[in-house]
Every structure is written in structure tokens, then in C-alpha cells.
Amino acid sequence: MSSRRALAAAAVAVLATAAVPWSDGPLRRLAGGEGEGRDPAFDVELDAHALRAAAPLIGNSPYATEWPVGSPLQQGNLKAAGQLYFARGFPVLERERAEWIVDVRAGRVVLTRRR
């Protein structure tokens, strides 16, 4: 009988938690509430529209991402954006193996076909 009571108490606790309105406190930020738009919030300035437009062109081809004068943070954000927007593609580290090169020049995303 005590296991039923424990289960009932757990169910009540879950329902009570769900009924409590969300605030803008730290719990909401931790839970990852609503986003501000359909694009992710990158740590650096990236043109999500250009990345989204490049995705159908890359398709399932091998691609490499480069930010020649970028910091490690910028390069990492570009790589993560590539993994998000070019999910069907095959990321490669070596430029020679890539059919497409996605790089950032003067703050703009540039897509270049190698083959």
C-alpha cells in the first residue's frame, strides 16, 4: 500500500509542478523556454538566412567550413551552424576532400563549389 501512496504523491507533485506558471527566473532559462525566432542564437554574428539558402545546394555532398581570419569561437560557431543547417551533408576537415567550401569573408557567408 505504501508504494501506491508514493506513486500517488509523485503524480501529484508532477501535476502541481506543471500547473505552476513559468516565470522569467533561472529555472525557465535552464529549461530552455521559448526562443526568440526560428534561428539559433549564435555566440558570433552569422547570417542564418545565407546558411539556410545554401543547404539545398550542398545537399548530401561533402563540405568544409572555414573562417580564415576568425577566432576559434567564430570557427566553432560556423562549424556548429554547418552541422545544423547542412545536416544532410558530410562535413570534412580537409578542403581537398570537400565539394563545397563554406567560408566567411568580410562578415559574409560565401559558398564555393570546388568540383
Structural features, described:
With 115 residues, the protein is of the alpha/beta class. The chain has 4 helices and 4 strands, in the order αααβαβββ. The chain has helices at residues 2-19, 26-31, 48-58, 72-85, and strands spanning 62-66, 90-91, 100-105, 108-113. It has a 4-stranded mixed β-sheet with strand order 2-1-3-4.
Tell the overall outline. elongated
Total count of helical runs of at least 4 residues: 4
**Largest beta sheet: what is the strand line-up?**
2-1-3-4
When the domains are counted, the total is 2
Termini separation comes to 71 Å
- What multimeric state do the chains show? single chain
* SSE-based structural type: alpha/beta
Largest sheet, in brief, is: 4 strands, mixed
Helix content: 40-55%
CATH architecture of the largest domain: 2-Layer Sandwich
Give a quick set of tags describing it:
4-stranded mixed beta sheet; THUMP fold; 115 residues; single chain; 4 helices
